[in-house]
Amino acid sequence: MQKITVLCVGKLKEKFYQEAAAEYAKRLGRHCKLEIIELPESRLPEDPSAAEIQRALAAEAAAIRERLPRGGAVIALCIEGKPCSSVELSRRMQELAVSGKSQLTFLIGGSVGLSEDLKRQADWRLSMSPMTFPHHLARIMLLEQIYRACQIAAGTKYHK
C-alpha cells in the first residue's frame, strides 16, 4: 500500500477545512496510508521585508527537512510548478510506486510559499493552478485530487 505524507506549513483553524480534510483522510484510508503533518508557520509582520520573508522561509524549510520521510519522492506544490490533469496525477503516482517510490511526500508551504532550496530539491514541482489559493484551501484541493487519483487507478466512476 502506498504511503502518502502531506507535509504542511500552517494549521487548519476553520472547522469547515478541518471537516473536509478529515473526510478525505477517511476516504483515502482505503487506498493508501495517509499521514498529514502540520508545522508551525513563521510569524511575519504586516508588511514584511524581503529579508524577513527569506528568514521565515529558511526556518520553515528547516522544520520541513526535520520531518521529511526518508526515501520516496518529494512533490512540492508551487505556482511555478507544472500543472497536470487528474488522470496524469494518477498515472504519475502509479509510476512512482512501480519504480519503487511507494512513499510520496507532498509539500505545502505557508502563506509565503516554500523556500527555493526546497523546491529545487523536490523530485517534482506541481502547480494546482496559475491562480493563487490560500494554503489551507490548497491542502483540501490536494487531498481531493489524491483521492481522485486513487479512484482513477481503481477504475471507479468517481472521476467522470
UniProtKB/TrEMBL annotation:
Q: Which UniProt keywords apply?
A: Cytoplasm, Methyltransferase, rRNA processing, S-adenosyl-L-methionine, Transferase
Keyword Methyltransferase among record annotations? yes
What's the family?
Answer: Belongs to the RNA methyltransferase RlmH family.
Instruction: Identify the InterPro entries for this entry.
Output: Alpha/beta_knot_MTases, RlmH-like, tRNA_m1G_MTases_N
Could you tell me what this protein is called? Ribosomal RNA large subunit methyltransferase H
The compartments listed are: Cytoplasm
Natural source organism: Brotocaccenecus cirricatena
**Tree of life domain:** Bacteria
Q: Which Pfam families match?
A: SPOUT_MTase (PF02590)
* Annotated Gene Ontology cellular component terms: cytoplasm
Give EC number(s), comma-separated.
2.1.1.177
Q: What's its catalytic activity?
A: pseudouridine(1915) in 23S rRNA + S-adenosyl-L-methionine = N(3)-methylpseudouridine(1915) in 23S rRNA + S-adenosyl-L-homocysteine + H(+)
The entry's function note states:
Specifically methylates the pseudouridine at position 1915 (m3Psi1915) in 23S rRNA.
Q: Please tell me where S-adenosyl-L-methionine binds in this chain.
A: 77, 109, 128-133
Q: Tell me, what is one Gene Ontology molecular-function annotation carried by this entry? A: rRNA (pseudouridine-N3-)-methyltransferase activity
Regions crossing the membrane: none
Q: How does it assemble?
A: Homodimer.
